Amino acid sequence: MNKQTIKKLRNWLQVHWRKPGPAARVTLLILAFLFLFPVVFRLLPFPELSEFMAQEYSCRIYDRRGKLVQVTALSGGGRREFTPIKQIPKKLQKAFINQEDKRFYFHHGVDWLAILRAITQNRRADKIVRGGSTITMQIAKSINPDKSHTIKRKLKDVFYSYRIEAKLSKQKILELYLNSIYFGSNSYGITSAARTYFGSDLKNLSSGQIEILSYIPRNPTYYNPVEHKKRFQDISEQAGRAAANARYYKYPYNLPHFVNYITSEYQKNNKPLPYELYTTIDLEISELAESFLREALEQAQGSRITNGSLLLLNNSDGSVITWLGNGDFFDNENSGQIDGVLVTNQPGSSMKPFLYALGIENNILEPSTVLADVPSQFGNDKLYIPENFNNRFNGPVRMRIALASSLNVPAVDTLNKIGVPAYLEKLYQLGFDSLKKNDSGIKADLGLALGAGEVSLYELVPAFSVFVRDGVFLPLQYTKTNSPKESKQIYSSDTARLLCSILSDKTARSLGFGYTQTFQTDYPSIFKTGTSNQYQDIVALGATKNFTIGVWMGNFSGNTVMGKTGSSLPAWVAKNVLDKLEGGRDPAELSFPEPEHWHKERICSVSGMKAGENCRSVVTEYIKDDTQLSTCNWHTLIDNEVQVIYPPEYQQWFRMRKVSGLVEYSQSKLSFITPKDNALFFYSSLNEQTQAIPFEVIGGSEPTLDVYYDEKKAFQNLERPFIFSLPVERGNHTCRIICGTESNEISFTVK
């Protein structure tokens, strides 16, 4: 508007407003109303419209390759997918405008000409043959809480229509309409309708399919192309052809446990699911893993194993590749809908690597360190007596073998030296938050060494991956839209590399598992398994440089597994999945790096010391650069014959196993092996005649021992090995021992 026009308008207003006639006043009021109407309506809050625009939509969930995993159902059933107007083809938009509202771009919410035309045609036909509602009015009807068929409600629809037009642009109104309108068969919106009837996305719809979709909203039941194909032959040839091929689409229902976890996370954070979610899942690998898991569960039916779960990670970023919560989601009899990835169970020996790694970090252990696998008692107020899986003891074993073969006594002894609080703190750093609940980790006490605390695969698998990631922990990531999570250095890179060396050592593993093919791979890999006390839970963990996998099998009913199945079945699943992922690759590409501050040295396989001239079995082991090994003094030449002289703590094992060699008694301080000072015992009336408290003593400079029970002599001149028993009597007691000039005393209580 130029200056001259503005001047003329101002002059006209001055003349006519000062001398207003009725026509001028009406004209000005109408102009003012038309100007103020949209402004006021735009500024006024419109809660009904806001609520409608915030309605629930389905979420299209894709895997990392763009394959559709699921389209989530609405809370009330059905599906409503959202597609931005820019992604809805123009020809589809035009088809709906032509069918529903030809003058859509030329009215302000109500098309009075269309209403008059509809009234005229309906009167002539003496029935309703045409509607006069615009696209905007159809939205108004949806948001109007009054669903009656009164004039008052229709006037409110008109009022709402004007308000909608004042609030939203034409493109936004069309977008809202096309994404909300009901198409029958539990499908809302054009995207869900295209998928429901034609299994197609919008960009691939044919002209005939578009024509059919534009008719359906008139009467979704009457114009259902699957149920009433012939009705579209009368509309057009292309519509008839499209209807002939219409089929109900079977929505994919992949990885339901994983999808449930995602939706629950959004709900927990009070966030709606996005319209589209691109995850890190790989459907192809997931289907392969699921086939192995189901096969293993079928094999285990005779052992009363009914449930299994699997979690597979990409080590480079901690992203989830496969999440299988159970073998069969729809197996209601065996609680198939419970997500085994999230359920906490006893992990058994699968926790031992974290303990031994901490022992290395604290300079308590090296792979060459010899640990005593002998009958032992730990604790004071709570007595803990661990045994191995096969109920045998192996005497002196190097830490490498103790971990790889999953021996129990050395693990408990290591935890006893480290301390439960320090170990728990490390486990918390690794993400084992389950151990914080109800102080379950603290209550497990020394049993933590053998996996007494309950944890989940969700925690266990990313924790295990730190060893192939140079000691770095990465939290799980399951969507591509997630911002990268902070990594944490849990163990030094050298410690992690040593653990990889041990857990991939087939020879070190043979003492506990033999040379089983379950752990044999053509590429560098590490494995660790675990079984709970009652064989209720069996776990296998495996990893390569690229992937980490965890498999759990057992049953949610709590029933004990029948037979000692060990961890062979879940280990078989883990190995087969890794074989498919890494098989055929150059092993050199997957090799684990060497620790930087350690060197290899020849050591005695029995004593773990530097190999001497009398050592018959020598192995090469990593030794810390600043460690000075002493030469083996266990192998000694006596009467021109090499003898093994064991330290005194092996006396009971030596006697039980009847191994060749000798036990050195005189070089150690006189002390009790069992029980510990201030130990607590409980009297049982069921076996009064057979109850006794076992004692084992080592050290001393003389060949015999005197024992005093509550200051009364119980044994005199007891010969080695110093192993004896005292009767069980309620009360507080003392036991004093004398060997030559040395003596020692402990107290204990029987309740």
From TrEMBL:
Residues 308-544 form the Penicillin-binding protein transpeptidase domain. Gene3D superfamilies: Biosynthetic peptidoglycan transglycosylase-like, DD-peptidase/beta-lactamase superfamily. Pathway: Cell wall biogenesis; peptidoglycan biosynthesis. It holds the Pfam family Transpeptidase. GO terms for biological process: peptidoglycan biosynthetic process; proteolysis. The keyword Hydrolase applies. Residues 77-234 form the Glycosyl transferase family domain. It comes from the Bacteria. The keyword Transmembrane does not apply. Its EC number is 2.4.99.28. Keywords: Carboxypeptidase, Glycosyltransferase, Hydrolase, Multifunctional enzyme, Protease, Transferase. GO terms for cellular component: outer membrane-bounded periplasmic space. GO terms for molecular function: carboxypeptidase activity; penicillin binding; peptidoglycan glycosyltransferase activity. Transmembrane segments: none annotated. PANTHER family: BINDING PROTEIN TRANSPEPTIDASE, PUTATIVE-RELATED, PENICILLIN-BINDING PROTEIN 1C. In the C-terminal section; belongs to the transpeptidase family. This is peptidoglycan glycosyltransferase. It comes from Treponema bryantii.
